[in-house]
Specification:
Order of helices and strands: HHHEHEHEEHEH
Distance between the termini: 17 Å
Number of helices: 7
Radius of gyration: 22 Å
Shape: elongated
Strand order of the largest sheet: 3-2-1-4-5
Helix content: 40-55%
């Protein structure tokens, strides 16, 4: 997508340069292309920082989130699982299940479909209904929702999922949710 945008911006700059245009129109067009290029670069830089530099895919933050390794856990995602391998490496002796609550009827964002097509080597996941997880009462020590809960767009749906996870957790179980914050830095970044 970024490569296609560079090609389009470059082609646009070439067209604007070679076609005879009034100076003001040419300046406005180049300004627009410059702003589009800036947006593209900032978007790429922010994504690189958040997903590659900030360390979410390194497991050191899990020490504070899960001071004691779970014996049984689930990792839930909505069609794109980029975190099971991190959890497996961090908790190699745990019994784990990977649950996919992707619903193509309700989750129609093109980004999810694109990501699912591009994702390779994802672990096999059980497709589940988030309202009725195939997990017994008090059966889990942990449940992980890493950049997944927001895919349930309706607040009631998120509440249903969290209720279902609570039912599945043992007395001292933990739900670990990682999401982007809706704060000023995130607003400026995205």
């Amino acid at each position: 997508m970024y490569a296609a945008a560079v090609v389009v911006l470059t082609a646009g700059a070439a067209v604007i340069y070679w076609i005879p245009l009034p100076s003001l129109v040419r300046a406005a067009a180049f300004t627009g292309l410059g702003l589009a290029a800036f947006w593209l670069l900032v978007s790429l830089a922010v994504s690189h920082y958040i997903y590659d530099v900030a360390g979410i895919y390194r497991d050191n933050w899990l020490v504070s989130a899960m001071p004691q390794a779970p014996r049984r856990y689930v990792n839930l995602h909505a069609g794109l699982d980029e975190f099971s391998s991190v959890l497996e490496k961090r908790f190699p002796n745990a019994e784990r299940r990977i649950l996919d609550f992707f619903d193509p009827q309700g989750m129609t964002e093109p980004s999810i479909t694109r990501a699912r097509k591009l994702a390779r080597d994802q672990p096999v996941a059980e497709h589940v209904d988030f309202r009725a997880l195939p997990v017994g009462d008090d059966a889990l020590d942990a449940a992980f929702l890493i950049f997944a809960a927001h895919e349930l767009r309706e607040p009631e749906s998120r509440v249903e999922l969290l209720r279902e996870l609570r039912r599945s957790l043992a007395a001292n179980g933990r739900i670990v949710v990682v999401e982007h914050l809706r704060d000023v830095p995130n607003l400026l970044a995205f």
